[in-house]
Specification:
This protein is mainly beta. About 10% of the residues lie in helices and about 35% in strands. The protein has an 18-stranded parallel β-sheet that branches. The N and C termini lie far apart (about 90 Å).
Length: about 750
């Protein structure tokens, strides 16, 4: 038996049941020694890998190696919480074997290499949901490479904003399967003072056909490097964002330590991109720095959503440019105006010897988002019909009757609260800010209250620093669902919010699944397993004692394309604006809430920062109450009479406020007042859009600048509900969603039939 040469370190899957003195790689069995050059995890192998090979094993497509080499057996290898602190090379069973083979036709997807078709013959890198990442953390890691792996629920991070030396990262002959539910390749932005320049190569990489992220769809890659090259990359359908910026285009793709950042595509096939923005990069605030994207001999087919441009670069200055040479840019669906849609003032787009099909034109400039708007929305003295998807009559301001609305909210003040926060209250809490520090920090930020949902305990409620004028009682458990076991991830977190400090104890007493042990200060409980039916019983019970159940950050955990899998029972809550206005999860969660409403279910909107660190004012909700006290906020939240976001909304239909369900009657009127922007929400040189929506579409929309309160009244039609959304058009995200007023059409229909 051959000895495994110096510089090679074997990583054996299913280590407990495998031999401890031999290792088989690519059909050859080597003698090894446990703990010296044979290990059961990549964590152990990385820690031990110090020597460099003098020879190259037969069959490997390399002339030499400059760093230690880890050889991975077939089977599954977990990478949870793996930190890479030294240079190394990972070689899987299929090292050197591309998953992509040339297609008979240039514009068709590369064929899938049958040598890579069976998971059982692959070295599988597998990651758990929360921690399933290999992460470069060491300041001096000049090189890291992986070659020949099957990647399943796993991802790679270079989480260094700076380092001690330049870094080269190579990803070669890798096949990804869905879902991942996280950004697959993430690179932290490089600071201006960083001496480290980062170069990344993706070669012979393939995403599983129709790579489905089950409604979440994070990024394929966040850029933030000096140079990235894609060579023979195949993406044939994905719901992920492939472009290198966020949905709101706010994330910059510029390395802070160089004048020019570069991205190159060579011999690539990219098709069926279902995420926002197509292939986009952002250079906002570039000043004198630039970003260059080049593509040669590549195919981009339906590389954006229907009707959108395949390439959507932000060209901030003359150093920012896009060049396509010998490429195909094709849209077979029709309706797209241009193959390249330029954001910004730049002009540097060049298409050389390219075939462009299915677009009205090759290149166009996108109208920039508005930055100015009038003081008031249009609500003229004369009645008029809106020109929207769902036209309604607007009542002139001189004829509209706001009496009931104003009387209902008389004496109320706007209060701003974060509906999802974590503190350091001891015990099982995992927040960073001590409970005693919250109130002064909230005062600094203009925040009035916070819902404390520390995990697995009620300890905080009974501490002397608890303040009933500033804190609401809550906790955030998790649950897995036995009847959703078929899903890739069948768990989610939920906040339980109570009107008094004994609410949680009542729940734990009535639901033994939580297995609470201990007392109010030292006790804790587990995250139980439920059926959806039992979970809905939990929601019903919490409602019966005056509390609320909120599905927290819904698109962060549960992985499903069915909106009803996220439903928690009638009059439960779904977090919509979560983590921040421009956060990826906020877009996805708001879209999900609209899908749930479309099914006819009654589910209130909630939100929150989910901060585990500093107190923040980036994700407030706005309540109108007569005093700042926890019970007042609970009472408003219980009936849904508030808006998620930093804008105040007062809305009624015939005397019934937000959150109500009432019988529809002809002649009803909707009255609305909007204003009281939170100081962190309102921005100068920003255009906002007020929308009123029904279940049949946009009823009313007008721009305003947020400087003055707004008032609108409309004639109600036979609709399932009405609600309000306020967009920040300049920065492209929602800053407010109101709870609906639901109209019971069946009651009206039964009355009419009688």
């Amino acid at each position: 038996m051959l000895q495994l040469p110096k510089g090679y370190y074997a990583v054996q899957s299913d280590f407990e049941n495998a031999p401890k003195d031999q290792f088989t790689y690519r059909g050859v069995t080597y003698a090894v020694e446990e703990g010296v050059n044979l290990f059961g995890t990549p964590h152990e192998a990385c820690a031990a890998a110090t020597e460099t090979p003098d020879t190259v094993l037969e069959g490997l497509p390399y002339e030499s190696f400059a760093y230690p080499v880890l050889l991975f057996s077939t089977g599954e290898h977990r990478i949870d919480k793996l930190g890479i602190t030294a240079p190394c090379i990972w070689l899987g069973e299929k090292a050197g074997i591309s998953p992509n083979l040339p297609a008979p036709e240039k514009t068709e997807a590369p064929l899938f290499n049958e040598e890579r078709a069976t998971e059982e013959t692959e070295s599988v890198i597998y990651g758990g949901y929360w921690y399933g990442a290999m992460r470069i953390t060491g300041p001096a890691v000049p090189f890291f490479m992986i070659d020949g792996f099957y990647m399943k629920k796993s991802r790679f991070y270079d989480s260094r904003p700076t380092g001690e030396c330049d870094t080269e990262i190579v990803v070669r002959n890798v096949y990804h399967t869905s879902p991942c539910l996280h950004t697959i390749y993430s690179f932290d932005g490089l600071r201006a003072e960083s001496p480290m320049h980062r170069s990344v190569l993706f070669e012979n990489v393939r995403l599983q056909k129709d790579f489905d992220e089950l409604g979440y769809g994070r990024l394929f890659m966040s850029f933030a490097s000096n140079k990235v090259t894609f060579r023979n990359l195949c993406i044939d359908g994905t719901t992920q964002l492939f472009g290198f910026t966020t949905i709101s285009r706010a994330s910059r793709n510029l390395a802070g330590n160089s004048e020019l950042s570069e991205c190159t595509f060579e011999d690539c096939y990219i098709a069926g991109l279902g995420g926002e923005n197509g292939i986009a990069f952002s250079c906002m605030g570039a000043v004198e720095r630039g970003f260059v994207m080049r593509a040669t001999n590549s195919v981009f087919k339906n590389a954006a959503r229907v009707g959108e441009a395949a390439f959507q670069p932000n060209l901030e200055n003359d150093k920012c440019r896009l060049t396509l040479t010998d490429c195909y840019v094709i849209d077979t669906r029709g309706g797209a105006k241009a193959a390249v849609a330029i954001h910004g003032k730049g002009e540097n787009v060049l298409l050389e010897n390219c075939t462009v099909e299915g677009y009205e034109t090759e290149v166009m400039h996108v109208t920039p988002p508005p930055t100015k708007a009038p003081d008031f929305v249009k609500s003229t003295r004369r009645s008029r019909m809106t020109k929207t998807a769902d036209p309604h009559r607007v009542i002139g301001t001189d004829k509209a009757d706001f009496t009931a609305l104003d009387a209902y909210y008389e004496g109320c003040n706007p209060y701003y609260g974060d509906l999802h926060t974590h503190s350091n209250s001891g015990g099982t809490s995992d927040g960073k800010t001590p409970l005693a520090d919250w109130v002064p920090k909230m005062d600094e930020l203009g925040m009035d209250f916070a819902v404390m949902v520390d995990h697995r305990q009620m300890r905080g409620y009974f501490l002397p620093e608890w303040d009933d004028t500033r804190f609401l009682y809550g906790t955030e458990p998790g649950a897995s669902f036995t009847d959703l076991a078929h899903l890739p991830n069948n768990t989610f977190h939920y906040n339980m919010i109570f009107p008094h400090k004994y609410g949680l104890a009542m729940v734990l007493a009535n639901f033994p699944e939580f297995k609470f042990q201990g007392d109010e200060l030292t006790g804790s409980f587990t995250y139980p397993k439920f059926t959806k039916e039992r979970f809905i019983e939990l929601n019903t019970y919490i409602r019966s004692i005056g509390g609320m159940l909120v599905h927290a950050h819904p698109k962060l955990l549960l992985a499903s394309n069915d909106p009803l899998d996220y439903y928690c029972g009638e009059w439960s809550y779904l977090e919509t604006i979560v983590n921040g206005y421009g956060a990826h999860g906020a877009y996805r969660a708001c879209d999900l809430w609209e899908e749930v409403l479309a099914t006819g279910k009654h589910m209130y909107a909630s939100g929150g920062s989910d901060t585990h660190g500093n107190v923040t004012n980036g994700c407030p909700s706005t309540f109108y109450t007569k005093q700042r006290y926890h019970k007042d906020f609970v009472d408003r939240m219980y009936v849904g009479d508030y808006a998620v976001g930093g804008v105040g909304v007062k809305m009624m239909i015939d005397g019934h406020p937000m959150g109500s369900q009432i019988a529809y009657k002809k002649g009803m009127k909707l009255t609305l007042r909007v204003g009281d922007f939170h100081r962190a929400t309102w921005k100068e040189e920003t255009a906002y859009q007020l929308q009123i929506l029904s279940d049949e579409g946009v009823v009313y929309e007008e721009m305003f600048n947020g400087k003055q309160p707004q008032a609108v009244a409309i004639e109600v039609q036979k609709r399932r509900f009405y609600r309000v959304v306020i967009w920040d058009l300049t920065h492209r995200y929602r800053v407010c969603v109101s709870n609906p007023i639901w109209l019971d059409l069946e009651e009206q229909e039964s009355t009419e039939n009688a």
